[in-house]
Design a protein that fits this description.
single chain, mainly alpha, 15 helices
Length: 322
């Protein structure tokens, strides 16, 4: 039995590394889709994601949740909100990568846990422990430093962080599995996305049929690129501890940051290094506090959970939908 448990743990860890590794390396994929613009790529991602996950659910015959969802208007409304928010997130991310802002995009996913905590305080009226307040304060200072460094607020990072934090909050309320949630959200996105692609084609601006078979195949593969990491994430989430997932989630923005600096050659002047260093310090404080809290005696932790555990510390890390 112990051997089986260790084996399951290894499988879960490998799936977690695979999921966050794929999300971290995805900046290498979006430039391959040029000359398609960000909006056309986004529309193809919506259409082909639904096709891919739809076929997957047909194979495993997991459709009972759909009927239940359709009978619950409130949850269905939340799915529509989630679809709208993740559309913004996907669109901004694709545009950022293909416009040479990979480093700034990675910052959005670094600061996402801090934004999630801030939203927990402002929206859900949650109370933070002192170290968590310190982490949020350091994160705010980092944004100020980066604003000076960029000569403007890091809008791309903030848009990605706030949209994804909102998405995580809504998904928590919907309470659907990863693949099921993606299916429901892309079902909402499908008709507008398909309509836009047909409009592009009618005006002669679509690249799907004009740039060759290879380009069309790459656009179609956006469904696999979107869904496959989610499948791996789902396999990891049920096999490894929450604390492990919490650490693994930083793989994606680390890989994105390294690609931006080392592969795409984006500039990193001293003030940007200073801003990123502050963000990383905030994450160290946040992760260390969460780890310390999780290892407290059970009675003490339970007694304090009601008052002090914020949304980001009390729920599994969200999958990085980029």
């Amino acid at each position: 039995m112990a051997g089986t448990s260790r084996s399951e743990g290894r499988i879960g860890l490998l799936n977690g590394i695979a999921a966050y590794g794929m999300w971290g390396l995805v900046p290498l994929f979006w430039p391959l889709l040029k000359p398609a613009g960000a909006t056309e790529i986004l529309a193809h991602r919506m259409v082909w994601s639904l096709a891919f996950v739809g076929v997957a659910l047909l194979v495993v015959r997991r459709w009972a949740w759909a009927g239940e969802l359709l009978r619950q208007p409130r949850r269905l409304g939340l799915v529509v909100i989630a679809a709208a928010v993740i559309t913004v997130n996907w669109g901004v991310y694709i545009w950022a990568v293909n416009s040479g802002h990979v480093v700034e995009a990675s910052l959005g996913y670094f600061i996402n846990p801090l934004v999630t905590i801030a939203m927990g305080v402002l929206i859900l009226k949650e109370r933070l422990r002192p170290v968590q307040w310190a982490a949020v304060g350091v994160g705010f200072s980092a944004v100020l430093v980066l604003t000076i460094g960029y000569g403007r607020p890091p809008w791309i990072s903030l848009c990605l962080a706030f949209s994804f934090a909102t998405y995580g909050l809504v998904k928590k309320k919907v309470n659907l599995g990863g693949v099921e949630s993606l299916t429901a959200e892309t079902a909402v996105q499908f008709l507008p996305a398909l309509g836009y692609l047909l409009w592009l084609s009618a005006h002669g601006d679509a690249t799907f049929t004009t740039e060759g078979t290879g380009h069309a195949a790459l656009l179609a593969s956006t469904g696999i690129v979107t869904a496959l990491p989610l499948v791996c994430f789902g396999a990891a989430a049920i096999r490894v501890p929450l604390s492990t997932l919490g650490l693994l989630q930083y793989l994606a923005p680390v890989f994105q940051f390294l690609l931006g600096v080392l592969y795409f050659g984006e500039a990193m002047p001293a003030e940007r290094w200073a801003g990123f260093a502050l963000v990383w310090l905030a994450l160290v404080l946040l992760t260390g506090d969460a780890w310390r809290f999780s290892r407290r005696p059970k009675k003490v932790a339970v007694a304090q959970t009601v008052e002090t555990v914020p949304l980001a510390a009390s729920t599994p890390p969200a999958a990085v939908d980029v």
